[in-house]
Specification:
With about 170 residues, this protein is of the alpha+beta class. Helix content is about 30%, strand content about 15%. The chain has a single domain (about 5-130), classed as Aminopeptidase (3-Layer(aba) Sandwich), CATH 3.40.630.30. It is built from five helices and five strands, in the order βααβββαβαα.
Length: about 170
């Protein structure tokens, strides 16, 4: 494997979203946006780890910590670079980051029909947790502008967050 790993910057957001469009396999989620990536990096500047070859983005992983749990998301490798150690290198860097933050357990969301991904996770020591299911609820049919904490950059410091502004009400008011 001939690649360099580094943390993402806001300038990478567009390329990252393009990578996910090419390499991702889940059409059942809302579309990713550069604004959402930028908001994530504003909250946690080291959460997104990138793999590059000759300055070209070839893979990514999000190693997130929400203050309680440690999660891995978006382990994605360009199809032409798969089975060459890029995913394993990204996963190793993500685990190292979360270990340094204090993790003793890490979880990842992997699609059931992603056989290549399932094999990587299994080979890396992860085990399927069959007694849990993921539950989701769509709040809107399309991406919405950042509001509340994400828009205002509230980091959790201080007595309380700014009021959240929702663009709709489930009660019609």
């Amino acid at each position: 494997m001939d690649c360099v790993l580094r943390t993402a910057s806001p300038e990478d957001a567009g390329d990252l979203v393009a990578l996910w469009r090419e390499a991702a396999e889940n059409s059942g989620r809302p579309p990713d946006t550069a604004d959402a990536v930028t908001a994530l990096l504003g909250r946690d500047p080291e959460a997104v780890i990138l793999a590059e070859h000759d300055g070209v983005l070839i893979g990514s992983v999000i190693a997130g910590w929400d203050g309680w749990r440690y999660h891995l998301y978006r382990l994605a490798v360009r199809p032409g670079w798969r089975r060459r150690g890029v995913g394993a290198a990204l996963l190793s860097a993500a685990e190292r980051r979360l270990w340094d933050l204090g993790a003793t357990r890490i979880d990842a969301m992997v699609l059931d029909d992603n056989d290549l991904g399932q094999n990587l996770w299994r080979a890396s020591g992860y085990r399927r947790q069959d007694d849990w299911r993921r539950w989701v609820k769509m709040l809107l049919g399309a991406a919405r502008p950042l509001t509340g904490r994400a828009r205002d950059g509230w980091s959790g410091a201080g007595a309380s967050p700014p009021a959240l502004t929702w663009p709709w009400s489930p009660y019609g008011g």
